[in-house]
Amino acid sequence: MTDVRVGDWLVDVSAPLGSGHFARVLPARRVRANPAGIVERRAVKIYHARGSAAQRQSALAEIRVQEELLGCPHAVAYVDAFVAEQGEFAGCLVQVMELGDRSRAGIDERRPDPSQCQPVRQ
Q1: Per-residue pLDDT tens for 5-62?
Q2: 120: Cβ–Cβ under 8 A, 6 or more apart, which residues?
Q3: Residues 6 or more apart in contact with residue 53 via CB below 8 angstroms
Q4: Can you tell me the distance from the alpha carbon of 83 to that of 81, in angstroms, rounded to the nearest whole number?
Q5: Using one digit for the tens of pLDDT, what is the confidence trace for 58-69?
Q6: Of 27, 23, 65, which Cα lies nearest the Cα of 47?
Q7: Closest CA to 28 of 51, 56, 47, 5
């Protein structure tokens, strides 16, 4: 395990959950336990977009869509988003998400009807 601190999270960069041209997803745990003594475990998506305005806008648009789908049983839950201020990911957009309990392997074949998830308007 190779932990790197990103905001309030310790991200395990040695165990990627997924990656692509746009971002990579890594397992993470909160630096400090909550008042009940539980350490949150989440997935952290780190976008590669540091400099390009178009890439940052695209990443923000993706996050907004996920925010609108809060409560949808077919979407990974959005938790938080921020720009990393220090370390190797300084300047990168970071999205904290629910950590799934199973692999996505084979899910594309069973994709639900998108009309089942209605965006939340705030």
Answers
A1: 999 999 999 999 988 878 899 999 999 888 888 889 999 999 876 656 777 777 778 7
A2: 67, 68, 69, 70, 71
A3: none
A4: 7
A5: 777 878 887 787
A6: 23
A7: 5
Q: Where does residue 79 rank: exposed (0-12), middle (13-18), buried (19+ CB within 10 A)?
A: middle
Radius of gyration of the chain (CA): 15
* E strand or H helix at 91: none
46 forms beta bridges with: 24, 94
Terminal Cα-to-Cα distance of the chain (whole angstroms) = 39
Distance CA 83, CA 25 (A): 15
Q: Are 84 and 7 in contact (CB under 8 A)?
A: yes
Tokens of 114: 């998108």
How do residues 76-100 score in pLDDT, each as one tens digit? 788 888 889 989 898 888 999 988 7
Tell me which residue of 25, 16, 38 sits closest to 95, measured CA to CA: 25
